[in-house]
């Protein structure tokens, strides 16, 4: 795999370089509420700018329906990126016209061909992008699991290189598979167990402990025979989850579930709630966070870990009253001597929202979906094409 360093050594002054970045940030109107992905894109872009490249950046924001939509404009991102680079970043349709300049293409998903399942349609858009550049740098790790025009197809049409972010992310993920130190503990949370079926199935043959919290835990608890009240439950996954519980026992994997939760009267920031055991959740209540005993339990199960991967919050961390479980897991990782990886998505957002030190973790991924698909054992098309 050729890298940005290879490209820089070849010389880029005056050359047109297309960079696929991941600038898919959360917005409140036109205000960026978490600029982590923008900041993560800076090292690659700054290196190219300083070397005199004419940089064209392709990125997406949200899920527009293949046509322009003002609420998904990358204009706020261009402004923030310009601040971080210390220069103007304009949104355009052409290429950068001077050495060291940066042009950000408007949301690439405004063109339906970007995400088309038709190879010819994606290739046509890739041809248009390739005509604007002399080289391609893949630096959007959050989309490398997608076979999309600006991620996969354009790399087949131009000399291609892995950016610093993608290279760093892939090296970290390989440490979770090829250079593993044990005990290896994975913490999974989030809303739906269905989102992580493949990951759980694959991990049961690799991990020493699997800690399950968040909304997905209630399907596991139900599979154990507990009533879960009005908590989030995927009844169509009960048979699958029962199979996981049995397989974990057969393999000697310690699968740890909550023993208490914060049971609320409704899904609201100010909802009345109480701590209850997981075998005594009232029929009219829903669990919105793991309880204090579970927080101590999970922290204890992380204490001797040498490798930890965490993906998914333990509760509704956006509501302060139900953020304690997520904070407890994050703080346990900060205190740990393990190699700790935060698997992007809501977990990374929670770290920043709760004001925890980012340097307290070995690595905070920018790509939750890509991280999970890698751990699921799937091939990442945007990485595979760089290796070709």
UniProtKB/TrEMBL annotation:
InterPro entries: Phosphoglycerate_kinase, Phosphoglycerate_kinase_CS, Phosphoglycerate_kinase_N, Phosphoglycerate_kinase_sf
UniProt-recorded name of the protein: Phosphoglycerate kinase
Known pathway: Carbohydrate degradation; glycolysis; pyruvate from D-glyceraldehyde 3-phosphate: step 2/5
Assembly and binders: Monomer.
Localization per record: Cytoplasm
Binding positions for ATP per the UniProt entry: 196, 287, 318, 344-347
Similarity comment: family membership: Belongs to the phosphoglycerate kinase family.
Keyword ATP-binding in annotation: yes
Entry-linked SUPFAM superfamilies: Phosphoglycerate kinase
Organism: Saccharothrix xinjiangensis
CDD domains reported for this sequence: Phosphoglycerate_kinase
GO terms of molecular function: kinase activity
UniProt keyword terms in alphabetical order: ATP-binding, Cytoplasm, Glycolysis, Kinase, Nucleotide-binding, Transferase
Record-listed E.C. numbers: 2.7.2.3
Catalytic activity: (2R)-3-phosphoglycerate + ATP = (2R)-3-phospho-glyceroyl phosphate + ADP
Binding site for substrate: 22-24, 37, 60-63, 109, 146
């Amino acid at each position: 795999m050729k890298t940005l360093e290879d490209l820089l050594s070849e010389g880029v002054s005056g050359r047109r370089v297309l960079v696929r970045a991941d600038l898919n940030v959360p917005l409140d109107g036109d205000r960026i509420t978490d600029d982590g992905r923008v900041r993560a894109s800076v090292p690659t872009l700054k290196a190219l700018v300083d070397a005199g490249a004419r940089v064209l950046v392709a990125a997406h924001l949200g899920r527009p329906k293949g046509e322009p939509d003002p609420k998904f404009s990358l204009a706020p991102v261009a402004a923030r990126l310009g601040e971080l680079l210390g220069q103007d970043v304009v949104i355009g349709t052409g290429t950068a016209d001077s050495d060291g300049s940066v042009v950000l293409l408007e949301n690439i998903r405004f063109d339906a061909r970007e995400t088309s399942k038709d190879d010819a349609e994606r290739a046509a858009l890739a041809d248009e992008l390739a005509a604007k550049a002399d080289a391609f740098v893949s630096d959007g790790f959050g989309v490398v699991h997608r076979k999309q025009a600006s991620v996969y197809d354009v790399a087949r049409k131009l000399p291609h290189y892995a950016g610093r972010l993608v290279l760093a992310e892939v090296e970290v993920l390989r440490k979770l598979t090829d250079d593993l130190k044990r005990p290896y503990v994975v913490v999974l949370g989030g809303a739906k167990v269905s989102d992580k079926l493949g990951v759980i199935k694959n991990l049961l043959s690799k991990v020493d402990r699997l800690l399950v919290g968040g909304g997905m835990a209630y399907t596991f608890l139900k599979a154990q025979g507990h009533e879960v009240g009005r908590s989030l439950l995927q009844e169509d996954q009960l048979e699958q989850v029962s199979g996981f519980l049995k397989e974990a026992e057969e393999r000697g994997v310690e699968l740890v579930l909550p023993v208490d939760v914060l049971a609320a009267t409704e899904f609201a920031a100010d909802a009345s709630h109480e701590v209850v055991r997981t075998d005594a959740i009232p029929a009219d209540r829903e669990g919105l966070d793991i309880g204090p005993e579970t927080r101590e339990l999970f922290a204890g199960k992380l204490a001797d870990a040498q490798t930890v991967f965490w993906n998914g919050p333990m509760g509704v961390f956006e509501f302060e009253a139900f953020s304690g479980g997520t904070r407890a897991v994050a703080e346990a990782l900060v205190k740990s001597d393990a190699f700790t990886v935060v698997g992007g998505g809501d977990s990374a957002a929670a770290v920043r929202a709760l004001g925890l030190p980012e340097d307290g973790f070995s690595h905070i991924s920018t790509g939750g979906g890509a991280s999970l698909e890698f751990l699921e054992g799937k091939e990442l098309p945007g990485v595979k094409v760089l290796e070709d």
